[in-house]
Specification:
It contains nine helices and seven strands; from the N terminus they run βαβααβαβαβαααββα. α5 (129-140) links the parallel β4 and β5 (148-156). The chain has helices at 12-25, 42-47, 53-74, 93-111, 129-140, 158-175, 180-186, 189-193, 241-252, and strands at residues 4-5, 34-38, 78-85, 116-121, 148-156, 206-209, 228-232. The protein is globular, with a radius of gyration of 19 Å. By secondary structure, it is of the alpha/beta class. The protein has a single domain, classed as Undecaprenyl pyrophosphate synthetase, CATH 3.40.1180.10. α3 (53-74) packs parallel to α4 and α4 (93-111) runs parallel beside α5. The longest helix is centred in the N-terminal third of the chain and has 22 residues, at 53-74.
């Protein structure tokens, strides 16, 4: 099921009242365990103010930290953020340099929260060394008390993830001396899942995309087979808590059929 949501705009006091009402109306036992988010619309947000693109990227990064705070408040346990796709790597060198710096700073800010664990998804060889190293060190950190697990998809492509999974599976099979023909005959869904970037994690229950686009653009292609989708017209920097609460309310009202 797909829902296209218009952004809601209202005065401050009315907004606060509506936010409280939405929060109280949530079925907490129906809050998604794992949410995937396509943080889309940063560049368009900057253009509408005739501001430099980097202002949009920075506003989007600030929103990520705010959004993760909402998730912690509401009991979401896993969040996967689509921050930079492999297609985005084709942007101008100047914009990419600025964007990489903003991403690195965002990772530093995530590192300040001792209750968040971080897992990197993507191709680190496509990233500058300083960013790849920062991702590696942050991923290695294990919080003593984890409240939220965050997957950061940076230099990520859904097709590439599946290819990487199959490649690693085959390399392991050869190293173990397994017969490749027999492997091909016996291969099943779980064999591939065990080699995905999100191996060992639950698949996303809900995938949210902002900015009015209604496509996945390769995001979690394998894992989202039975996910619910929610499309919101608000650009990512404009995505507010009421927009998130409305997405959760809509999700709670759906009957998940898992393919049927």
């Amino acid at each position: 099921m797909q829902l296209f949501s218009q952004p809601l705009r209202m005065p401050g006091l009315l907004y606060d009242y509506y936010e409280r009402r939405l929060t109280k109306s949530l079925q907490m036992d129906r809050v998604p365990n794992h949410i995937g988010v396509m943080v889309d619309g940063n560049r368009r947000w900057a253009r509408q103010f005739n501001a430099p693109t980097q202002h949009g990227h920075q506003a989007g990064a600030d929103k990520i930290l705010e959004f993760l705070g909402w998730c912690q408040e509401l009991g979401v346990r896993v969040v996967t953020l689509y921050m930079l796709s492999t297609d985005n790597m084709n942007r101008s060198d100047e914009e990419l340099d600025v964007l990489m710096g903003i991403i690195a700073n965002t990772l530093d800010r995530l590192d300040e929260d001792s209750t968040i664990s971080v897992h990197a998804m993507g191709a680190p060889e496509l990233l500058p060394d300083y960013l790849a190293e920062r991702l590696s060190s942050l991923t290695a950190r294990r919080p003593a008390r984890e409240l939220l697990h965050v997957n950061v998809a940076i230099g990520y492509g859904g097709r590439r993830e599946i290819v990487d999974a199959v490649r690693e599976l085959l390399h392991d099979a050869v190293a173990q001396g397994r017969d490749i023909g027999r492997l091909a005959d016996e291969l099943d869904v779980d064999d591939i899942s065990r080699y995905l970037y999100t191996r060992g994690q639950p698949d996303p229950d809900l995938v949210i995309r902002t900015s009015g686009e209604q496509r996945l653009s390769g995001f979690l292609m394998w894992q989202s087979a039975y996910s619910e989708f929610y499309f919101c017209e608000a650009l990512w920097p404009d995505f507010r808590k009421v927009d998130f609460l409305r997405a959760l309310r809509d999700y709670a009202g759906r009957q998940r059929r898992f393919g049927s």
